Amino acid sequence: KNQVEQSPQSLIILEGKNCTLQCNYTVSPFSNLRWYKQDTGRGPVSLTIMTFSENTKSNGRYTATLDADTKQSSLHITASQLSDSASYICVVVPYGNKLVFGAGTILRVKS
Amino acid sequence: GAVVSQHPSRVICKSGTSVKIECRSLDFQATTMFWYRQFPKQSLMLMATSNEGSKATYEQGVEKDKFLINHASLTLSTLTVTSAHPEDSSFYICSATGRTDTQYFGPGTRLTVL
Predict the structure, then answer these.
(1) How far apart are the first and last CA of chain B?
(2) What is the DSSP letter of B96?
(3) What does the pLDDT look like over A66-94, one tens digit per residue?
């Protein structure tokens, strides 16, 4: 069964600190893996998209990594800001099939 | 580019009434649109997939007579929640794909049924 597991479930960090969110998946084969940011009461917004052959992708302070051998991905946020408070969702896209969503990690950045 | 809008952003209705939610692709033609439902602190759950001009494909457990989907044009899909009940209260999100399989999500519609 295609599954995407994210950890931690929630996280609180101080403004300016770095953090790393984890994503483990069983989806195979897959076309690409995506990280989305979802603010409360809003739709998900794409942060990074990686194909199965890519190891890392950056978007400003967000850096995603992918290890296809261990079926793990991570999202690293550097120099966190209050506006980074949101839910971060890992999504794996199988070939020609529906998106498989993780449950998300709720990040809260405190001042 | 690739902007998807939803209307309304929030709606409150009485139990037993029907509510229509619109999803529009503003700057691209959406061959396929998806409707998701999201309960608090949970991830998105796919309800149905619709292709322009054809009937929607519903996920298991989603009542097609209760959640009517119309994808009449390449830029507009509507979801109508018929005879809404309090348990239908949720956050409804649409997404759309164009030439590629990348899904662009709308901002969501918060439905509250009293």
Answers:
(1) 37
(2) E
(3) 999 999 999 999 999 999 999 999 999 88
Closest Cβ opposite residue A101 in set B6, B44, B108: B44
Shortest Cα–Cα distance, A30 to chain B (Å): 13
How far are the Cα atoms of A13, A107, B9, B38, B74 from residue B110, in angstroms, in the given order? Answer: 29, 22, 6, 10, 24
| β-bridge partners, A106 | A10, A87
Give the closest-approach CA distance of B72 to chain A in angstroms.
22
pLDDT at B86 over 90: yes
Interface of B with A in 38-77 (CB under 8 A): 41-44, 46, 49
Which chain B residue has its CA at the smallest distance from A102's CA? B43
User: Which of B42, B102, B104 faces A103 most closely, judged by CB atoms?
Assistant: B42
Write out pLDDT tens, residues B88-114.
Answer: 999 999 999 988 878 899 999 999 999
Q: How far is A18 from chain B (nearest CA, A)?
A: 23
Q: Residue B17: count other Cβ atoms within 10 Å of its Cβ.
A: 12
Strand partners, A100: A92
A94 preceded by a cis bond (ω within 30 of 0): no
Average pLDDT, chain B: 92
Q: Of B97, B44, B109, B89, nearest to A42 (Cα)?
A: B109
The conformation of residue B88, written as its DSSP 8-state character, comes to G
